[in-house]
Every structure is written in structure tokens, then in C-alpha cells.
Write a structure and sequence with these properties.
Distance between the termini: 37 Å
Largest sheet: 8 strands, parallel, barrel
Bound molecules: 1-deoxynojirimycin
Shape: globular
Number of helices: 16
Number of strands: 23
Strand order of the largest sheet: 1-2-5-9-10-11-12-16
Structural class: alpha/beta
Amino acid sequence: MPLSSDPIWYRDAVFYELHVKSFYDSDGDGIGDFRGLTMKLEYLKDLGVDCIWLLPFYQSPLKDDGYDISDYYGILPQYGTIDDFKEFIRAAHSKNIRVIADLVLNHVSDQHPWFKEAKSSKESSKRGWFVWSDDDQGYPAAPIIFRDVEISNWAWEPVSRQYYWHRFYSHQPDLNYDNPEVREEMKRVVRYWLSMGLDGFRCDAAPYLFEREGTNCENLDETHAYFKELRNIIDREFPGAILLAEANEWPNEAKRYFGNEDEFHMVFNFPLMPRIYLGLASESSAPIINIVDQTLPIPKTCDWGIFLRNHDELTLALVTDEERDIMFQAYAGNPKMRLNLGIRRRLAPMVDNDRPTIELLHGLLFSLPGTPILYYGDELGMGDNIFLGDRNGVRTPMQWSYDRNAGFSRADSEQLYLPVVINPNFHYENINVESESRLPTSLLNWVKKMIRVRKKFSDVFGHGSMEFLEHRNKKVLAYMRRLENSGMLCIFNLSRKPTYVELDLSRFRGLRPIEAITDAKFPQISDRPYFFTLPPRAFFWFNLKLDDGEED
Ligand code: NOJ
């Protein structure tokens, strides 16, 4: 099946984020690889995935799980060869699945030959590829991102006796984008992987490319200008490929990454994500309504990427201190669950494995304006391991079956890159693809069904307008997604108790709400307020249709 030629294919797509090392180990060394991933493509196809986002698979000493790259043109041997990669892309495309990959532009590993050369002497030809200073006082307004580990964005280099700039770990020196050689080299990297068949990039740490004194060194015009140059390359040389921005910024800055339809195709909706959880914790629709209003409208051919969880801590950088406290209390009671400004947990354990809450979260994910992006394993309700360091607790092996190592690998268990989850509430013997596939009511089967429904109504969900409905119950979130004659009414009870809501739907009089997942018919809409009762954490999607006179 050929890939669709629709240039804005991403608006109708479901994305799935995964790490090659975590998905399936084909050669029994305890680490997932491209061959293994290729073997599991059918699972992703069956789930309804249209685009895979691969976490970094390049050469790396793996001190930041591959976000510390030591060769942009090479694949980490444990993950396979270039031929394995090409075969994976070919096989994915043959199943009509696109593939994007992380592009780490901002920084490299301190093991990268460029940095090794640069630090060898002040006269080195690569010296200007990094940002150096005689003191550590520059750019004081730039926040420290990994604040639990780093105390400064400058690190001392003892051989050439200067400080170098780094926004993340000190072993990740920032590249100097004021240097034209750096800008050109990274364009070469972009062309290299797109020529290999990749369908685009998730651009890591997008806001931080340039530094300017007197600013927080984020979202600078120069940074936007560089991304516009990359977009230009894509539009001219690789049409159909996309750029997706990781920009953990407030709506006014995050939206700027769309440019004038000449920068990013997609931007992660970082402002919305924590407010979904805040809405649940505070049993109030206000945080979600306020932020969605600030994130819309966006240019026509662009799209938000919506996500509930990813491979990092659930960042709380974009909430107030008071809101952060509410979130920590609700979702991270144990200090081990916290990291930097966030919560290092997976979706299911974070909400105490409460099935109605997990369903409601997916009801939002699949109906709010934007492209849904799933994190591997969350479709199963996978658990986490807060006793593993850094963000490793949410990066454990995918759980395929109740066999040894959850069917992920034939290696000795001690050899796995990380242990599988054996916490009794989330034990892999229970939570795995094979068992869940057999159980009609499993979370996996439910998510699969939701993806089908999302796709059935992809026009209205992927392209429709968004309007919040006013009413008197703040525990209930109600909105309409509309496109031409289609209308989807979405209602969510954010509270832990049953509740009710009266909606003025009189402008839809004569239509009938048909529950979108089961096709259950509700009474015709009239001029009178429409009354809904909602069990705890329940949600409904109602397709508003002309009354065909038939009863259920
Ligand atoms: C954001 C990535 O998502 C995270 O995992 C990484 O540590 C930093 N960028 C640094 O590359």
C-alpha cells in the first residue's frame, strides 16, 4: 500500500513513540534492535498506528539514553546496521506506516570527535563549533533544565582552560549555531537521513539553538530563522516529510514555531498536557479550557501534537508553584517519583491504575484538537519502576507475553538493558500484548477500538473547529468539534463522583446524539436544556445526526 500523498497527512494520523532498544530484541543480547522492531510492525499496524517516532538510535555513549550523540551518521551497533534501518523503513512504508526520528540539533556528546577536537586547544579548527567563555557568568537568565543534577549551564574544560555552554547535562556541550559550519553540517545530517527514507524529525530541544546576552536564550529569532531554513529544504527536496518541535514553552511562544506555515508542521502541546492532569486533580474544567483557548487558532496546515506521557518526566515547567504542589500531591506522593520539575511515572500507575480515568484521558487525547501521540506500552497500561535512576523507570522493555522477560528477549534476565516490571499490580505476566489481545475487555483492545473510532471520525477530529459549551457544572468539560455538517459533542466528568450537566443544545434541535463508540441512540435534541448524567470519570462522544426515526 503506497503512503498517502496528502501533504497534511499528519492531521489524520495516530503517532506512536518508541525506543528501538525497548521494543523487541531479535538477537538475544538483552537490547531491542531494528530487526526486532521490524518483526513487530504488524502489531503497530493492527493497533492503528500511522507514524512511528523513534527515539535517538545514533552512535552514543548513552549517558542521556542516546540524546548524547557521538556520530550523527552512524547507528549504535547494538541496535543494528544501516541496512537493518533501511529494511525497517521499507517494511514500515509497505504497511503504510511513516517513520520520524529524533533530531538532536542543540548539543552533542562530549565524546563526539567534534568536541574532542574542539577542546584540545583554543586554536583548534573545531573550537568555534562550541560556545566558550573565560568565566561562567554569561547568559545568567537562561534557566537550568536538569536542575536536580546540574548547578550551572557552564562547565569547566581543564585542558584548554575555558568554560563551555550546555543547556542539558554537562557531558552535552551545546553546538554554536552562530558558526555557519555548524549550521551547514546539521543540514547535511537532515538530508542524510531524509534521503534514507525517513519521513521527518522530532526536533529535540528546539528553543535553545542560539544564545544572546540579556535573554533567556530561548525562542530567539535566529533560532526560528534556522528552522525556517530546514523547512525550506524539506519543502523543496523532501515534500511530505515533517518537522515536529519539542518546545516546552507557553502558548504564545510555542505557537511561533508554526511560523507562517513555513517553520514546523507540528509542535507538541506542552502547555495543555499538565493541565489535563491538573483538571483531574482539581476536578475542574477551567485549566483545560483556559489553555486550549490560548493555543488556538493555529495556521491551517499545522497541527498540535497531543500526548499524555512520553519518555521523560511529566514536565511541570509550565504551571504555577501552587499548581505544581497540587500535581505532586495527586500523582507523586513519594519523592522518588519526582525529577527536576516533573513526575517520572507512567500513565497507568500515575492514576492508580483506575480504568475509568485511563479511558477518560484517552477520550481527551483522541478528541482535543491535535494529533494524538501514544507512548509505547501505555496502550497496555504498563507499569513503571521508580527505583531505577533518571527517567529509566518509564523506559523498561515492552511487554509482549507472560514468557521470560515478558517475551521481549531471550537473554538471561540479568542481561536486559533494564529489568521488566514485576510489581504485582502491573506484573508483566498480566499486562502484556498476548494476554490482553485474548481478553475482549482489556485496555489494549479498548485503545485499539478508540483508535478505530477516532479514525472513523477523523474529518471532524483532525480538521474540525473547537468550541467549549458553557454550563453550570465546572466538574464537567463539554466541547463541540465541528466540520461542515458533522458535529461531535464531547463530554467528560472530571470528578470522582457521579454528576450531571444541562447543556443548551437548542441550535442543534432536531438532531440526535448517537454515542460514537457503541452507536447507542439518545433522545432527539429540542429547545429544552439537554440533561446528561455521568458516572465518575466517565466520558461520552456524541455524533450529532439527523434523526432517522429509528429506535435503538
Ligand atoms: C529532551 C529529551 O526528550 C530528553 O530525553 C533529553 O534528555 C533532552 N532533550 C536533552 O537532549
